[in-house]
UniProtKB/TrEMBL annotation:
Residues 1-22 form the signal peptide. Gene3D superfamilies: DD-peptidase/beta-lactamase superfamily. The gene is bla. GO terms for molecular function: beta-lactamase activity; penicillin binding. Its EC number is 3.5.2.6. It comes from the Bacteria. The keyword Cell division does not apply. Residues 36-271 form the Penicillin-binding protein transpeptidase domain. Keywords: Hydrolase, Signal. This is Beta-lactamase OXA-1. The keyword Signal applies.
Amino acid sequence: MFVKNRLLVVAVMFSVMGSAQAFDADYQKLFKGYDGCFMLYDNSSKKMVAEYNPDQRCAERIPANSTFKFPLALMAFDDGIMKKDSVYKWNGKPYELPGWSNDQTPASWEKYSVVWVSQQIAPELGLAKIKKYLAQFNYGNQDFTGDPGKNNGLTNAWLSSSLKISAKEQMSLLQRFANRSLPVSNEAMLETKKIIYAGQLYQGADYYGKTGSGWKNRNDHGENNGKMRDGWYIGMVENAGKEYLFVSNITDKTQPEASNKQMGGPIAKEISLQLLNSYFSDK
């Protein structure tokens, strides 16, 4: 509650004083221990309304991780290999992560960030189509080669591997999505938006989002044993007839304790929701 109230006070100060420095203190607190970035863009008025970008972090490319499920859904719906009533059958292999050990729908795939579904969809699309979409989306470095020497791009390129994107490039993709200017069908955009719906902020605004979790070093796949984490949260907010877009990411500055099992995506999401709830508390 203290953090929430403090953020509310600072948000009001920022609004009244018009000073970016009034917001900096809370960014510093929320991102303590991380290299990070946060951007909130008012798509209705076409202006950035909040930004935390130390050392040009928002321009730094890091692995896309599971935020790639957002453009992958656009590709799959557009190509027709995924329908709103598609079901992806679980093979019976038990997973520790919640929600993974079940048949999946497009919505549950996004909600639980189920990697094994992505690893079915990407090969079905094929490398040629994916590379074409990546070019049309102007998606980061567009490198779908995967891990060096493993020929695993279609199953691993986005997983702390070769496919990297910056926060600014994520924002550009969200802007094109919100403005319906991506080279995919309108149905693909509508269905993708439905499956990334995430809930409501404290004051009732609807928000949509996708997390992404991974490791700073390419070879750090698997269980977290004190490795440096990357985390993303990207999405949009609909409030009082206006649309806002947000992007945040974090990377550990130092190795977390091996006992710290929290993934990077949930950390970025938690930070983002604190900032979003603060910003929209009086909107």
